Amino acid sequence: MPKSRQSPVPVPSPLPPPTLPTELQGKLSGAGWMPHGHSLAAHSHTTGQLVYAAAGTLATTTERGTWVAPTNRVTWTPPGFVHSHRFYDRTHVRLLTVPVELCGELLPYPSVFAVSPLLREAVLVLTEDRPENRPGARGRLLAVVIDELTDTPELSLHLPEPADDRLRAVTDLLHADPARPATLAELGRAAGAGERTLSRLFRTQLGMSFHRWRTILRIHHALAHLTDGMSVTDTAMACGWSNPSSFIDAFNDVVGQTPGSYRADLRDSLTSP
């Protein structure tokens, strides 16, 4: 029986404090620049939190898996969920606290949502260090954010992680090499499990097929490569697609835009965070 790998979000005891830029230290809301590759250690909040990358890309990981949010996405983490963050490229991160009394309006589990123009502007204003000129203005603007999120469908950038040791042995192999072209039967032989059993476990434990799970894993890596400035063609090859066309189709299906459009959004976000 393969040994189970460590949870993707280890919970140290005691939890080390997250490392934040000076302008964000001691705050649950605010804005700051994070360097490429920077990580925030596993932690939790008594309130809800929205994290938006006005420029760059971030990944949020919990015991339920990993959510990736490029510049046109926002991550939502409800109160009490232990989570960590990793930032790709130089990222202009915006942290926005959601009071407990409003968290019931949003999903009870971590999620990723599209950022509409109205939602983006509201988040930018709420995370800036500016005085409240009219009493209650921030509360009214936060209500707009909640309304926008409740009207926005959840997006499929979540990569769940399994609990079963046999399935973890397979997903470990794919995490180590997302471009690996092996079939599920070949991965099963390497992990000591049958193809039919693994196929069933992917659907019952992860809620998706093996092909879909590997596609989302590859898209996560593709987002990081594109954020780092890699070309669409080189990203397709690095992540396991046989040609750019099939990569573009898969990227558009999962992210909701083409890789070229995503790169253009990245360039725009750097000039107007």
Tags for this entry?
disordered N terminus; globular; Arc Repressor Mutant, subunit A
Describe, in plain words, how this protein is organized in 3D.
By secondary structure, the protein is of the alpha+beta class. The protein folds into 2 domains: 22-150, Sandwich (Jelly Rolls), CATH 2.60.120; 161-271, Homeodomain-like (Arc Repressor Mutant, subunit A, Orthogonal Bundle), CATH 1.10.10. It has 10 helices and 8 strands. The chain has helices spanning 100-103, 117-126, 137-150, 165-176, 184-191, 195-206, 210-227, 232-238, 244-255, 259-271; strands at 30-34, 39-43, 48-62, 65-69, 73-77, 83-98, 111-114, 158-160. Strands 1, 2, 3, 4, 5, 6, 7 and 8 form an 8-stranded antiparallel β-sheet that branches. Strand 3 and strand 4 (65-69) form a beta hairpin. Helix 4 packs across helix 5 and helix 5 (184-191) packs across helix 6 (195-206). Residues 168-265 form the HTH araC/xylS-type domain.
Summarize the structure.
With 273 residues, this protein is α+β, with helices and mostly antiparallel strands. The chain contains 10 helices and 8 strands.
Low-pLDDT ranges: 1-19
Order of helices and strands: EEEEEEHEHHEHHHHHHH
For the residues shown, what is the average pLDDT? Answer: 83
Beta-strand content estimate? 15-25%
Number of separate domains = 2
CATH class membership of the largest domain: Mainly Beta
How many strands in all?
8
Distance between the termini: 49 Å
* H/I helix tally: 10
Label the structural class.
alpha+beta
